[in-house]
Amino acid sequence: MRVNSTQASLFFTQALGFRLVDENAPLWFLRCANTDHCSIVLAKTGQPTLNHVAFEMPELDSVMRGIGRMKDSGYPIEWGPGRHGPGNNVFAYFCGPDEVPLEYTAEVLQSDDNYEPRASSYWKFAPGRSDQWGITHRARRVIIACNGCSALPPTATGCLDESSRALPNPSRARGGRVASSQ
Fold first, then answer.
1. Where are the domains of the chain?
2. Predicted TM-score of the model (pTM)
3. CATH of span 48-110+129-173
4. How far apart are CA 97 and CA 137, in angstroms?
């Protein structure tokens, strides 16, 4: 099944009343009836897909405690901690037991109707950086799953390595404990 990403964007903006907030390469950030930077992010994949699920935490300390809990439970950080460009929010990504990328996030940019959308060209980082802070790199498992959406094969799901092969959850493969890939 092929999905027309432009039609999906038009559906959200025209039929549901969302407003384009920012664009970054394969992503459209949309907001509706709140002040959070975005309510939903659409990927320009041409395929029906769920990129990741984000859990908004009260503040940075909650994200950091969440990182500790996930690591203690056998789920290493796949990307983070860091600070996104669009949304200006702190983040940490993990791959859950079903291989869906999960994000803990906090400090999401608050905006109103005066916020001017920014194009992909605005969101550039220094070479070697994948976020504002530049202290961490995405693990191979989430490079495609969380950023290279258009490269996913139609049957791909979950956390992937660069060759688009689904990776097993390391906590299942190693009895519930995992050494960090960082």
1. 48-110+129-173
2. 0.73
3. 3.10.180.10
4. 22
